[in-house]
Amino acid sequence: MPDVRLASPQGRWILLTTVLGSSMALLDSTVVNVALPRIGRALDADLAALQWTVNAYMVTLAGLILLGGALGDRFGRRKVFVIGVLWFAAASLLCGLAPNAGVLIAARALQGVGGALLTPGSLALIQASIHPDDRGRAVGLWSGFGGIGAAVGPFVGGWLVDGPGWRWVFLLNVPLALLCAPVALRHVPESAGGKAEGRFDVLGAALGAVALALVTYALIEAGEGSLVVTASAVAGLAAAVAFVLVEKRRPDPMMPLDIFASRQFSAVNVVTLCVYAAFGGFFFLAALQLQVVVGWSALAAGTALLPTTALMLLLSARSGELGDRIGPRIPLTAGPLLCAAGMLLMLRVGPGASYAADVLPALLVLGLGMVTLVAPLTATVLASVDTARAGLASGINNAAARAAGLVAVAALPLLTGMGPEAYRLPDAFDDAFRRAMGLCAGVLVIGSAVAFATVRRPAPDCCRPECRTHGSVAVPPLEAGRRRGSRAR
After folding, report:
1. Residue 130 pairs with which residues in a beta bridge?
2. Do the Cβ atoms of 456 and 327 come closer than 8 Å?
3. Terminal C-alpha separation, the chain
4. What's the predicted TM-score (pTM) here?
5. Widest CA span of the chain, in angstroms?
6. Alpha-carbon Rg for the chain in angstroms
7. What is the pLDDT of residue 43?
8. What is the pLDDT of residues 400-431, one digit of tens each?
9. What's the per-residue H, E or C state across the chain?
10. Fewer CB within 10 Å, N- or C-terminus of the chain?
11. How high is the pLDDT of residue 290?
């Protein structure tokens, strides 16, 4: 039984450790998009290289995050968390020193491995260490501080890009890690909750990551139409099929397929794929649109996107409470429609756009849509399965959200006709951005229709998320461990 009280010195050190660790991954996910135009110019990179700068990280993170959680359960959550923090910092240093786009992309993939180790562990340490009576408050503080980090992330990223330079977007992680790791080793108790017997599903994790990588490569490079691209697409689909077969036959799979026997769980994950594909595409392209087409600085572009995060931070807890009262069907139907309307309003953002008249209204509508749907989406995922599988369900949903985002970043430039030099050509990029917003809005409408047709009110005694405040839609909250059912307050 965890027995560290939050008000104790050790409890505060544990909270600090988890906030620092999660902030590394959170800041990285929110600031890199702002830096992309400057990275492209500095390294003479084409649009495909910028796509890989985002997706190399997401491929390894999405493919290995479930395995990272299992490693913490088996070998010790603190140990794996600290390894992840140091790994992430080392990869960040390599990113900051990268002499060319190829090295940067490889370092980003290594960053994703570190993220897969530290991300599940940040919240799992609270779950394993903090007394149950204080856990809800601890998770709320963890999420709130993370939201503040998400809010300042684009601002900090823009300031770094316009000031010291884009490399500091990555180098910033090094001092955070040098502070976080010693604090964790000194003040956080070790814990482990997995079974000692059985084997890790390394083959499943590898097949999942390979499938994502090959499909992403095929989508990004599809414009070339070469035999290598075709072979990558076929091999990626074959790896995905092999992943399903391996997970079906293994006695201890990373992703037990029987969890999808829950119709509601399957449906909510379809909604997740639609929603986070649209979000991933939007945040990748919006930062470029504001800089390439509108002509704003990195700092101005990063600051411009703050309203969505601020609304999430201020209102998501209330949205979760509303979802508890009226059920998830209405929020999960209306939320994507609001987001779709916000993205269509972004069609007004072009050369000479005004922030107050053009950008802000779109972001406010988009942010209200995010507020409406994200908290009920998390709650419905957990409510769709037995409480003993809540951690697994949230992990699968988390991985699905990240996979959807990376596929969107890979596919949208292809679907909208962006050429390799599009981000250097304002008129061409503007035309493609408008087509992309229409596609994102369409995917959100599909998600809304799926939610309306399939989502129903969960049982009153189902598992509820302890994490009710969402600071960043770019990083879906990951519930820690396998929890006893907890009721909404």
Report:
1. 4
2. yes
3. 22
4. 0.87
5. 63
6. 21
7. 95
8. 888 999 999 999 999 999 988 899 999 999 99
9. CCCECCCCHHHHHHHHHHHHHHHHHHHHHHHHHHHHHHHHHHHCCCHHHHHHHHHHHHHHHHHHHHHHHHHHHHHCHHHHHHHHHHHHHHHHHHHHHCCCHHHHHHHHHHHHHHHHHHHHHHHHHHHHHECHHHHHHHHHHHHHHHHHHHHHHHHHHHHHHHCCCCCHHHHCHHHHHHHHHHHHHHHCCCCCCCCCCCCCCHHHHHHHHHHHHHHHHHHHCHHHCCHHHHHHHHHHHHHHHHHHHHHHHCCCCCCCHHHHHCHHHHHHHHHHHHHHHHHHHHHHHHHHHHHHHCCCCHHHHHHHCHHHHHHHHHHHHHHHHHHHHHCCHHHHHHHHHHHHHHHHHHHHCCCCCCHHHHHHHHHHHHHHHHHHHHHHHHHHHHHCCCHHHHHHHHHHHHHHHHHHHHHHHHHHHHHHCCCCCHHHCHHHHHHHHHHHHHHHHHHHHHHHHHHHHHCCCCCCCCCCCCCCCCCCCCCCCCCCCCCCCCCCC
10. N
11. 96
| Both tokens assigned to 283 | 């945040």
Tokens of 82: 């600290």
Report which residue type is found at 87: W
Q: Return the pLDDT at 214.
A: 94
Rounded Cα gap, residues 61 and 76, in angstroms: 20
Q: What is the spatial distance between Cα 472 and Cα 311, in angstroms, rounded to a whole number?
A: 10
Residue 289 tokens, joined: 């649109």
CA–CA separation, 401 vs 280, rounded Å?
9
User: CB-based contacts of 231: which residues, under 8 Å, 6+ apart?
Assistant: none
Contact assessment for residue 125 and residue 77, using Cβ atoms and an 8 Å cutoff: yes
Residue that has been written with the tokens 């006695």 in this structure:
251
The pLDDT tens digits for 318-343 are 887 887 788 889 999 999 999 999 99
Residues contacting residue 454 through CB under 8 Å, at least 6 positions apart? 263, 264, 267, 270
Place of tokens 């005004």: 354
* Residue indicated by tokens 């390799």: 420
- Residue 20 CA to residue 182 CA, distance in Å, equals 12
Rounded to whole angstroms, what are the CA distances from 463 to 158, 172, 258, 388, 469?
A: 39, 37, 19, 9, 17
The CA distance from 471 to 487, in Å, is 22
Phi-psi region at 349: left, alpha or beta (left = phi > 0; alpha = psi -120 to 50): beta
pLDDT above 90 coverage of the chain, percent: 51
Cα–Cα distance, 72 to 190 (Å, whole number): 10
| β partners of residue 4 | 130
Q: How far is CA 28 from CA 53, 173, 309, 410, 484, in A?
A: 12, 8, 15, 19, 32
| Locus of tokens 């649109």 | 289
